[in-house]
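Before a colleague's protein record goes any further, I have to sign it off. My question to you is simply how this chain folds and whether the tokens agree. I do not need a full report, just your reasoning and any doubts. This is what I was given:
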Amino acid sequence: MTATTCVEQVPMLDALPVTHLFDMAVDLLPAQPIPTPFGTRLTFVTTGGVIEGPRLRGEILPGGGDWLVVGSDGVGQVDVRATLRSHDGALIHYEARGVIKIPADGMDRLAAGEVLAFDETYARTTPSFQTADERYAWLNEIVAVGYNILSSNHIDYRVYQVL
């Protein structure tokens, strides 16, 4: 028996079609480093932040966080959870997984208060959303990608919907 495929019906892409959803500026408490056999865990607790964009505006509520594990190869696995509140009062659960790779001197530079430029790092996340608010229910049904810029006690995201 031969397997059949319909993949030839899927167009070849050299770029994903996306639309800009929002930018997010997140303020964080200083990292809590925890050495483990699996790498260094860095826990960042969210103190708040702002969301601005064409599809979503609002704030990040305090108390979420980023639980990052950085392996001996310098590659980090991102695990973010936060509660967003839209400008019109909707509560939205935000969750993102991803990968981060910073330059060898990146941790020292962040500790010194530097911003790591976008082209110096690879910080990509796949945000997902959950809300029962009908005005934002469309968020439950999308695939999103985030590009991040890192600085000491702060992170900026630009989030896109994959069309």
Summary: The chain has one helix and eleven strands. The radius of gyration is 18 Å. The chain has one domain: 25-162. Residues 25-162 form a domain with the Porin fold (CATH 2.40.160.20).
